[in-house]
Amino acid sequence: MTAALLAYLPLLEPLPGIERIWMLLLLPLAFGISMVYKAMRVTNLDRYWRSVGVMTVQIVLAMTGLAVLLTLLVQVVVPMLPAE
């Protein structure tokens, strides 16, 4: 096989060794997005960290809610559809 076929493809393969805990990567991602967004939008830096915390919690709760809704859709609603 050629070296190109043996190469790691990050967009097509999961990161090796992190399959069981990849969902925990949502926390630093949400925190980083919140920090950058609030650094650009907050007019008074006295409330910066509180705003970052609130937005981080909002992002995590929204992603968790979407995951639960999509799981219910796939596990409950799709099997009830008539098969042709």
Overview of the structural elements:
There is one protein chain. The protein has helices at 3-6, 26-41, 48-80. The protein is an all-alpha fold and 84 residues long. It has a domain at 23-75. The longest helix has 33 residues, at 48-80. It starts with a helix and ends with a helix. The model has no long low-confidence stretch (mean pLDDT 87).
What order do the helices and strands follow? HHH
Helix content: 55-70%
Question: Which structural class do you get from the secondary structure elements?
Answer: mainly alpha
Distance between the termini: 42 Å
**Count of individual beta strands:** 0
Provide the low-confidence segments as ranges. none
Q: Please summarize the sheet with the most strands.
A: none
Strand content: under 5%
Number of helices: 3
Q: What is the approximate shape?
A: flat
Mean pLDDT: 87
Radius of gyration: 19 Å
Features:
single chain, 84 residues, mainly alpha, 3 helices, 63% helix, flat
What is the topological layout?
Layout (H helix, E strand, L loop, with lengths): L2 H4 L19 H16 L6 H33 L4
Helix pairs in contact: 2-3
Short overview:
This protein is mostly helical and 84 residues long. 63% of the residues lie in helices and 0% in strands.
